[in-house]
C-alpha cells in the first residue's frame, strides 16, 4: 500500500519563503546583519516567485515585512560599525567592557 501525503488544501498558496523572510527579519533584531543578509535574499526570492505566479505562491505582505525588518537592521548594523571604526575611543571602551584586548596602530 502506497502512502502519499497530499496537502490539506491544494488551493492554498505556498507561503514558506515569505514566512522564512519574516522570521529572519525578527531574528535580525537580535543578531543584526548576520541574519539580515539571508533574510533579504529569501525575501526577494519570495517576492519574485509571488509576482511570477501569484496563484501558487502567496504571502507578499509577510515577505515585505521581513524585507523591511532586514533592511532596517542591516542599515542599523552598518551605522554602528561605521561609528565604532571612526571613533577609536569608543571602540577601546567597548573592548574593555567585553574583556578583549584591542591594539590599534597609533599614527
TrEMBL record:
Keywords in alphabetical order: Membrane, Transmembrane, Transmembrane helix
Membrane-crossing residue ranges in chain numbering: 20-42, 62-85
Provenance organism: Leucothrix pacifica
InterPro entries, per database record: DUF4190
Pfam families: DUF4190 (PF13828)
Chain ranges of the DUF4190 domain: 17-79
UniProt name for this protein: DUF4190 domain-containing protein
